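Here comes just one.
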Amino acid sequence: MPAHTKPLLDVVPETSEPLSAHIVKTEPGESAAAKVMEARIYGTPLEALCGHVWIPSRDPKQLPMCEQCKEVYEMYRAFNEHLDESPSE
């Protein structure tokens, strides 16, 4: 990649304990639960709908939901009738 096209900042996943639960960005037909489980096992980073990148390490059910992720999910729901009212586990 030429130097002039390289991004100014590299994305560094957050490794500290998150302050909120994020909704994982998935591809059509991809299971968010399976993606999270794999990331927890292998220590690979995930990207949330809000753009946050982190390595999952604990059960997010004990945290408040990320407001930005909820807003993005609601926008997706408005255009995709097949989405559930809340994201799957």
